[in-house]
Amino acid sequence: MAPPAAPTALHHRTPLLLPRRATATATARAARAASLAVRAAQPDTTAASASTSAPEPPALEFKPPPGFKVPEPKRFEVKPGQQNSVLGASLAIPLRLGTGVFVLGYAPYRAFSRHPRVYLAYGLQPAYTCLPARVTSICRDTIRPIRTGIWRLHPSASAPASSSSAWKVKEESKIGQCKRPEKPIEIYEFEGCPFCRKVREMVSVLDLDVLFYPCPQKGPTFRPKVLEMGGKKQFPYMVDPNTGVAMYESDDIIKYLADTYGDGTVPIMLSLGLLTTITAGLATLGRFGKGNSYTASKVPPQPIKIWAYEGSPFCRLVRETLVELELPHLLHSCARGSPKRQDFLKKKGVFQAPYIEDPNTGVQMFESAEIIDYLKGTYALYPSS
Question: Could you say which of 120, 143, 172 is where a domain stops?
Fold first, then answer.
């Protein structure tokens, strides 16, 4: 059987039943269309000159709000009006049994110092809670940090003459034995999601640096990007630029992180299936609705750097604001036992979380309440008065 004629030949052949005038009209229309197409393809110098002369829209400017001053860090201080927020954010600690507070293999231990004038204790706690009872009356202003996990009395402090020894508490972990990613892992999530919380807890346990892209409800920037990359709006969504792996499903992400950047073990509170999800959901009730919905904002060109960890209620309050404003942030996880605490202490002379560094404005600051005010005043399109 002869092969069928090519479709292109049938499309361009003039039908035999059309009258000559119709054929001529069709030919003229085709010629006119071709002329218009050629004209459209030619550059319009008038339009080009008009477009080049039109002013470009001004670039967004990022600067701290008027009257902004960097606050001094104050340890364990709750600002007036922040008590209920901190209390609600703290509800997650007992519900999740402290998951996200400690790194993998966290193990504190005690040792003794024979020097009668030196008392050592872990650096995060107030001095009077760590030192022996016989020296609790010593003013905390006489305590000076010498390195992470260790404090000592300033030489001007007076110690009991009968003291011949004192104890110290230091911390160890397995983080130094684990593989570290060269590039930050990227995670798309939002604060109020219990499945996202599970992954954030694992990030704190493994002491990972993560670039978070917040995806609050009705967020215009990163939610559509997740749909484009993965094919569905589901959270959390992880991309590991070190291995090329991208995946949904919180349990799969947790297992992947444990196998790739841990020792393969998953903490018990992250391996209980439905019970894990239920308790992670209950952990959000103290701050119900916070960190879920989008607040109109200006997206900065560079992510904000934050030192924080999942188990801290103060860090949680700051992250709620980062998520609501859809601000990308590079998390330097620093749960108890993290080696990053020592590096931070050497750099700043004190450790306190949360702490942010904003490369878009040059601001570096402690204190969660002031950080929240700064973020809203700098990046919200309609900052509250």
Answer: 172
* Domain assignment present for 216: yes
- Measured CA to CA, the distance from residue 71 to residue 371 in angstroms comes to 9
Does the residue 19 lie in any domain? no
Q: Going residue by residue through the chain (385 aa), what tens digit of pLDDT does each one get?
A: 444 444 433 333 333 333 333 444 444 444 444 444 444 444 444 444 444 445 555 567 789 998 999 999 988 788 888 999 999 999 999 999 999 999 999 988 655 544 443 333 333 333 333 333 333 333 334 334 434 444 443 443 344 444 444 555 677 899 999 999 999 999 999 999 999 999 999 999 999 999 999 999 999 999 999 999 999 999 999 999 999 999 999 999 999 999 999 999 999 999 999 999 999 999 999 999 999 999 999 999 999 999 999 999 999 999 999 999 999 999 999 999 999 999 999 999 999 999 999 999 999 999 999 999 999 999 999 876 4
| Domain span including residue 125 | 107-172
Q: At what angle do helices 368-379 and 313-324 cross, to 10 degrees?
A: 10
Q: How many domains does the chain have?
A: 2
Domain annotation covers residue 360? yes
Strands 209-214 and 185-189, by their bridges, are: parallel
